[in-house]
Design a protein that fits this description.
The protein is α/β, with parallel strands linked by helices. The chain has a single domain, classed as TIM Barrel, CATH 3.20.20. The chain contains eleven helices and ten strands. The longest helix has 17 residues. The termini are close together. The structure holds pyridoxine-5'-phosphate (PXP). Pyridoxine-5'-phosphate binds next to strand 10 and helix 10.
């Protein structure tokens, strides 16, 4: 079965917020993505509101009939917004104020009670809960113990080494992580696959995302355990040149 695609439209709001004006419209972007065949819409309501605003989330929920996934940090402020707006799903993410983008998965092991409490409050409001985590077995087990319905595997490291600028790309020299482990697309893929298989075996739905492109998504799309992708930056970047509808269609083709 082909995995679902939720298009992350944060960067439509990034362009709007560059001028603090009314265009481009996040609502119109959601309509175009869904019209092109996307299965859902994902937005990240960050604490600093650098792109998506509270009103965007409210409008998406009230004006667009679609599967809505909202990424947010497990803070009281964000849980209160989510339980009021009631998206279909919330993805709990780690958030650092000065990061350019989400830097990695949530450390569920070391923040277990906070995460578990957030999951309980969201699920009590009828919201499905996903946790964005690194492909690490202990983190996945902790996510299940915290009551998550789903995990989203962070594909950032895999994505980084598949970029054309990466030394491992097209016969380059393999890179090494901080702890000296040699990184290559193949080792990252096998790490992601082992993580996906473990998650599925303990009853979690498996999603993946971060840094995925029409080029690097195919290897992940071949993993039957992965049921959903959340992809934003590449689609919006491509849309600058070919339009949003075509950019979404290209990604659907790459996944299928
Ligand atoms: N999933 C999560 C949890 C994210 O934080 C992001 C980035 O906002 C994405 C997926 C999408 O990543 P990208 O924009 O690189 O496709």
């Amino acid at each position: 079965m082909t995995a679902k695609l939720n298009v992350n439209i944060d960067h439509v709001a990034t362009v709007r917020e560059a001028r603090k004006t009314i265009e481009p419209s996040v609502i119109e972007a959601a309509r175009v993505c869904l019209g092109a065949g996307a299965d859902g819409i994902t937005v990240h309501l960050r604490g600093d509101r650098r792109h998506i605003q509270d009103a965007d989330v409210e409008q998406l929920r009230s004006e667009i009939d679609c599967y809505l996934n909202v990424e947010l940090a497990a803070t009281d402020e964000m849980i209160a917004i989510a339980t009021r707006v009631r998206p279909d799903a919330v993805s709990l993410v780690a958030e650092n104020p000065n990061e350019i983008t989400t830097e990695g998965g949530l450390d569920v092991v070391n923040n277990f009670e906070t995460v578990k409490n957030a999951v309980e409050r969201l699920k009590a409001a009828g919201i499905s809960v996903s946790i964005f985590i690194d492909p690490v077995i202990d983190q996945i087990t902790a996510a299940a113990r915290a009551g998550a319905d789903q995990i989203e595997l962070c594909t950032a490291e895999y994505a980084e080494i598949t970029l054309p600028r990466s030394p491992t790309h097209e016969g380059g020299v393999a890179a090494a992580s901080a702890d000296g482990v040699v990184l290559s697309p193949a080792t990252e893929l096998s790490r992601l696959h082992a993580a996906a298989a473990h998650a599925k075996s303990i009853g979690l739905i498996v999603a993946a995302g971060h840094g995925l492109t029409t080029t690097n998504v195919a290897a992940l799309a071949r993993m039957p355990e992965i049921e959903e992708f959340n992809i934003g930056h590449h689609i919006i970047s491509r849309a600058v040149f070919v339009g949003l509808e075509k950019a979404v269609r290209e990604m659907i083709v790459a996944i299928s």
